[in-house]
Design brief:
By secondary structure, the chain is an alpha+beta fold. The protein has one domain: Double-stranded beta-helix (4-Layer Sandwich). The chain is about 25% helix and about 25% strand. It is built from eight helices and 16 strands. The protein is globular and about 55 Å long.
């Protein structure tokens, strides 16, 4: 399919995903970025083969979509890898870990997670190392009406325990509304979501286990085989992704992250389960401390 702007779009799966050609991301401008954004809203994840962006071009493309930040944890841990690159970018190499082989949405342990991620494959193995994405629209819409009704009134605790930062916690609605499409999204993931706040521990374990497995069904997903120089961008507000850790050799990616999301959904309809209150208090204290630090850093001389 060709768009009015001359972009060629090939859908990759029913639920989500499209490959886009006829564009040089290094020469992208605001008008063209608007077309790309519209395609992203339609397909949730886009792939642009044969781009081969240098770090400055990669960052410049990302800035067309909003403010950028490096990863709050991995960027610090892998500072040696990112030396000499723009501070908004971080790099991950398989030989030093960083294979995201659990389904997740990026940075949901933050009060304002990422809007989208833009990744370039710099080096990839000949076989293996594919990435899968799943549509959280499709996952929500496939649930029964009674279960959707229940979930619309629940919230969930997320933390950065996989990054050895259990102090980084926040609360998000289990079902959020995408701010641009207006569609509902099932917003929990196996990597960062710890418990459903309004349920008892055993109830939370059972339902959260079901939901995190539910989103992984193949009918909701697309699987992509990488080639060097391919750029992928995905909407973190309505997707999860997963890297297949099935390869030998080097796999190196560079990524920038567009920030500024604020997950919103229906107000919680029940009070927190008593045993969840301590976790909620920790989350509130962590968020308050984070906001105070941001305020102080913004002051002259901060």
């Amino acid at each position: 399919m060709a768009t009015p702007g001359g972009l060629r779009v090939r859908r990759l799966a029913t639920a989500l995903g499209a490959e886009v050609s006829g564009i040089s991301l290094a020469e992208c401008h605001e008008e063209l970025a608007g077309q790309v954004r519209a395609l992203l809203l339609e397909h949730s994840v886009l792939f642009f083969p044969e781009q081969h962006l240098d770090p400055e071009q990669h960052v410049a493309f990302g800035r067309l979509f909003g403010p950028l930040e490096a990863h709050p944890n991995l960027g610090q841990r892998l500072a040696a890898d990112t030396e000499g690159r723009p501070p908004e970018m971080f790099e991950l190499a398989a030989s030093r870990g960083g294979i995201a082989d659990e389904w997740h949405t990026d940075l949901t342990f933050l009060p304002q997670p990422s809007v989208m991620s833009i990744l370039q494959m710099k080096r990839c193995p000949e076989v293996g190392g594919d990435t899968c994405w799943t549509s959280l629209y499709a996952a929500y819409e496939a649930l029964s009406e009674p279960l959707r009704e229940l979930l619309d009134g629940l919230t969930a605790l997320h933390d950065a325990r996989p990054h050895n930062r259990p102090d980084q916690t926040t609360i998000h609605p289990v079902v959020r509304v995408h701010p641009e499409t207006g569609r509902k999204v099932l917003y929990v993931n196996e990597h960062f979501t710890r418990r459903l706040v309004e349920l008892s521990g055993p109830e939370s374990d059972v339902l959260l286990d079901f939901l995190t497995r539910h989103v992984q069904q193949p009918r909701f997903t697309v699987r992509y085989r990488w080639s060097e120089g391919t750029v992928a961008m995905w909407d973190n507000r309505c997707t999860q992704h997963f890297v297949l850790n099935d390869f030998e050799g080097e796999r190196v990616i560079q990524r920038v992250t567009v920030m500024g999301d604020l997950p919103e959904g229906e107000p919680a309809r029940w009070t927190p389960w008593p045993q969840a209150e301590e976790a909620l208090r920790r989350s509130a204290a962590t968020q308050a401390d984070r906001q105070l630090r941001l305020h102080l850093e913004a002051q002259p001389g901060g």
